Amino acid sequence: MISAPDVVAFTKEDEYEEEPYNEPALPEEYSVPLFPFASQGANPWSKLSGAKFSRDFILISEFSEQVGPQPLLTIPNDTKVFGNFDLNYFSLRIMSVDYQASFVGHPPGSAYPKLNFVEDSKVVLGDSKEGAFAYVHHLTLYDLEARGFVRPFCMAYISADQHKIMQQFQELSAEFSKASECLKTGNRKAFAGELEKKLKDLDYTRTVLHTETEIQKKANDKGFYSSQAIEKANELASVEKSIIEHQDLLRQIRSYPHRKLRGSSLCPRESEHIQDPPSQAATTSDPEESADTDHYACRPSYTPKLIKAKSTKCFDKKLKTLEELCDTEYFTQTLAQLRHIEHMFRGDLCYLLTSQIDRALLKQQHITSFLFEDLVEVSDRLAEKQESTVSKPHHYRPPSESPEDCLVPQVLISVGSYKSSVESVLIKMEQDLGDEASREAAVMESSSFDPQENLDYLEMDMKGSVSSGESIEVLGTEKPTSVLSKSESQSSLTVPLSPQVVRSKAVSHRTISGDSIEVLSTCPSEALIPDDFKASYPSAINEEESYAEGSQGAIHFQAGISPPEAGEAEEGSSGLALLQTDASCCIGREAGALLVPLSTPGHTLSDEDGVVSVPPQRYRQKDQGFHVDFSVENASPSSRDNSCEGFPAYELDPSHLLTSLDGSKTSLDDHSDATSYGSSVASTSSDRTPSSMPPAGPSSERHKKRAGQNALKFIRQYPFAHPAIYSLLSGRTLVVLGEEEAMVRKLVTALSIFVPGYGRHGKPVKHWLSSPLHITDFQKWKLIGLQRVASPASASALHALSRYSRYTSILDLDRKTLRCPLYRGTLVPRLADHRTHIRRGSTYFLHVQSMLAQLCAKAFLYTFCHHLHLPAHGGEAPELAASRQASFLQLTLGLVHEDVKVVRYLAELLRLHYTQERRGTSQPALRFDYVPSFLYKI
Amino acid sequence: MLRWLIGGGREPQGLAEKSPLQTIGEEQTQNPYTELLVLKAHHDIVRYLVQLDDSRFASAGDDGTVVVWNAQTGEKLLELNGHTQKITAIITLPCLETCEEKNQLILTASADRTVIEWDCGTGRQVQKVSCFQSTVKCLAVIQRLDVWLSGGNDLCVWNRKLDLLCQTSHLSDTGITALIEIPKNCVVAAVGKELIIFRLVAATEGSLGWDILEVKRLLDHQDNILSLVNVNDVSFVSGSHVGELIVWDTLGWTVQACERNFWDPSPQLDAQREIKLCQKPNDVSIHHLTWDEENVFVAVGRGLYVYNLPMKRVIACQKAAHDSSVLHVAKLPNRQVISCSEDGSVRIWELREKQQLSVEPAPTGFFNMWGFGRVNKQASHPAKKQQENATSCSLELIGDLIGHSSSVEMFLYFEDHGLVTCSADHLIILWKNGERESGLRSLKLFQKLEENGDLYLSV
């Protein structure tokens, strides 16, 4: 089916990333062809325009043994989404890249059919004709009636944006693994049920046959058996054999979770969970016995029926549907997870990346972020941490494996995968280059595993990998790393990094580029993880990425290959996309490499490789945002561990992705990286329609934009905007007084971006109030919209206002006056410059956010510098500490006049927030100063 | 209409015009209270505050509940519910020395004619007495005898177990408004215009039991006695509705010299009298008295006076200290005087020694219309007074606390935690020194950092 697969080296690009842009000759640039879709109002920058579908979707296909590849369902299940995109054709494409061996049956040396616990493979492929790129996740489900008991399926995330697939590979992989694991767990459950039924049938059949034989025996006492009797006896024997076989299968399927369990002492929850399904785990100790007792106990409703002895494989039957293959609950859960994935990766790549960066950075300032960041996010974070780790669909109480549980097994599994990947690499290497060295390396590597590996598993793995090489050349498999022994892995790392290897891959890619299918990367079928590997599973996650393994490896590799790649980049236009991708990877990687290591736990880098040492450390997470794609850094187990903890599942939640677009927290370095990266992506990536934007985004986004716009208007309109904003920043309640509710609300909303939050309860803003103010209001709210009523009742309101005037600044919208303390600092003028060139509300909002983040950083420093606040020695006078504080604020932080008060106020909030226990948070005390107020008029 | 906006003054204009009320602007550099915490638990006027220990206090009011608070955090510790009507008196019952448990006991009397003993550690209602014929309006504890007294229409003596030891006959329908202990097992009860001195006879082996005997009635006040305090071992002070302040000798129960109409420093009695007659009596009623070693601080109507006991005269005064009646006065250790008033404000004054005679504000405010019988005595002093004026003092307003929207009934000062005020607006406000609180929070922060092991991690 695939005439000449176009295999693309799955490589990182070198520094010459800008080369592709220069490619067209200068004169050609002057003749820009009209954008063919311009008439449809499409975005000329969109790469999606070539694709036949309107936005990304998920496709589930099956390689049916009866009809071949066929699409089963799409998410979203909306024909508008994929339009006239040929699902059948694409199913064929994606299913044909399956690497799984799915070899089952009677393996030599084994008496009984063996179930192959094949792990999923992850492949990225592109179809330039269709304009579609896909992350393809292959998996096999068990079906008693299927050939070899397996049914190959795949889930594909199809997008028109290649970069998105490439750079979100890890996330996609992680998320799809969850879905896959969920589906497979359900399938195992269903399969076990199936087996039990079958066993019952067989048992019943045996009883019947036995009775018949006995009867026959009794019937003729002549001492010889009739042919009929012999036939019966044979039949009985075959039933017996079948029973044993099925019992064995049942044992195997049941021992599956158990085997995994042995390795996962990491995750106690899994064990308890595994015990959960009553029909499964509890019985694993004695499969034979349990098979009998269990199924009677569990499924009393089932009435066994007589079956033909030879009915083990039935090809005439209609194959089970996907739903039937899987336990209903798990199936629903899987669909939910897939929808979740679809939701999560909606939108433009640069948007996804920016929000990832943003989140990663935001996480670093979790201590101060409650002040000005969106509370949704902050609180979400906690909630999500639990929610997405704990099962999303809560109604699947009973035996359901929560995604969390799925997660761990999946990770474990992927560790095992690299074993098989080693093999496939080995094969490819021979084909492609016949490079002795690489072959040796591979051999060496695989041999290095052997000691640790259980022979049984090895056997299965071998099966898996052997079959994978047939139709497609795959260059971009993951490279082998010995997870077990660091030294081994490092020595082996050097091999695939040799320039020749890379070059040859690049060449092959180029020459075949005309073909429509490009296998960009694969993650070969994974084998069950031996227990020993469990500890190192984190590294396995990264195996998929590239064959330059390990952080150090990757960098080394990159350096090595860059010259040849650079030369070749100009040719082969199909390579362009790849180059771009790689370029962006480089940025991220370099950023990562520049980071100062906090620690290098458990992973020492061998200098002999001449490798740039990229320490595995927490700081990584920061840049992971840039190159989550194929982030090489995580390769070392320890760093992966960190990121497992540090990157909680909430990260992957769609609502998260959508809400945050304030990339304001980036430090300078990061910022430049982020922007350059973002821009490069933006220029090439697809933003076809506004509708492809995440749905949750617009609301909050629009809200921010409007707030920013109105704040900008306020600043331009009122010359006394500075003292008003100062009031808000310093915690003095600002009362916006007006007759017209809409106006007041609008301004309150706009100004609320300057109000520091207290903590978990949202910003202390009251948009509209018509009753007289009370002292508690000032404690509760820092920005109040107050109704001015014409009636005499308002007199009391105004009286209260004047009575409490020392606690408030009053902005009178009707009269355009402001009564508040004097402000002479430099901070607010920068924050709210009425001559600013910023025109757009959202831009201004971001500006404010970044300024406030800076301010928060100052407040943080001030709050947490302990020499400022604690006496240097016991007898020190408090005045000394006070003078230290003052000089720190003034000299170190460069704050003048009233700015000091702002920082002091924020510091106060920080202290309160930090010291507050989780329990009921009371409102902070109302702090105020006895300072004179002034009346400002326009 | 914009007047309030420009004015900047926090007092209503109308009131300000009525009298030369001393005001202070928004800039109050000496006012340490820059942080406040509003405590909300009561549903009616909060009238009483009582300190339990260094960090706790109890509040009680017309809603019949008693609430125990943490003075540092403002946390509500306990709510004591037991009375069905408003609480009329509250007092702490000191622990016995022999008593192991440190839990503070308090007694509360209510208009439902009960007295309840509470354990403030647990919130438990220890005991309840409900055999009263009338509302108990005041409570007093005589620690020396380990008894407590309740004053309503009669005076009852109770022991710690809440057994009635003895009681007087019906004294008056208005009841006892104030009760203090004086030496020689005597107590002074203010009943209407009279001060009645009772002697307690403790039970001994020979006697039949406790007894309480009326010893003397002091009839010198012309009007209802509103306040009565025990200043020191040798004297106690009473103040009446018409502004009489009398210093009594605790031993002889006699009026000490020259104290009755000291309010009139001016020799022109006739003029004073006319002015006096125009004044509403409320303007001169003595709502509260407090004292330190040598001065008695008197809340007279809207004004605040400082009476020096050794000199037997007023040394400083603010005749218009507040917009309306001053309800409570307290002297702080640092020469500060705090007053609260029906106008909802709390003011902080500082007693400053004045060196120059000329600057002395003339305390000409009010005059006792019944006091001219002693005019001669007063009149003979002017020359002497002139000299004494050289050492007199003044009350300087150094800050005011605006928070309550209604009359501030009482306040309580904690050395370490600041000021607690309670008010008819159902609120209690905790006023704190912002700077000190900030420092404390900072310490707490680093303490927590250290506990978490984050403090020295990076080193």
From TrEMBL, chain A:
Disordered, as annotated region: 262-296, 661-708
Name the record gives this protein: Guanine nucleotide exchange protein SMCR8
Mitochondrion among keywords: no
Keywords: Autophagy, Cytoplasm, Guanine-nucleotide releasing factor
Segments forming a coiled coil: none
InterPro entries registered for this protein in UniProt: FLCN/SMCR8_DENN, Folliculin/SMCR8_longin
Comp. bias regions, Low complexity: 674-686
Automatic annotation (TrEMBL), chain B:
Keyword Repeat: yes
Any single Gene Ontology cellular-component annotation: lysosomal membrane
Name of the gene this protein is made from: WDR41
Coiled-coil residue spans: none
PANTHER family hit by this protein: WD REPEAT-CONTAINING PROTEIN 41, WDR41-RELATED
Keywords: Repeat, WD repeat
InterPro entries, per the entry: WD40/YVTN_repeat-like_dom_sf, WD40_PAC1, WD40_repeat_CS, WD40_repeat_dom_sf, WD40_rpt, WDR41
The protein's name in its UniProt record: WD repeat-containing protein 41 isoform X1
Signal peptide: none
Top-level taxon in the UniProt lineage: Eukaryota
Phylogenetic lineage: Eukaryota, Metazoa, Chordata, Craniata, Vertebrata
WD repeat feature ranges: 39-79, 319-359
GO biological process terms on file: autophagy; regulation of autophagy
A Pfam family the protein falls into: Beta-prop_WDR41
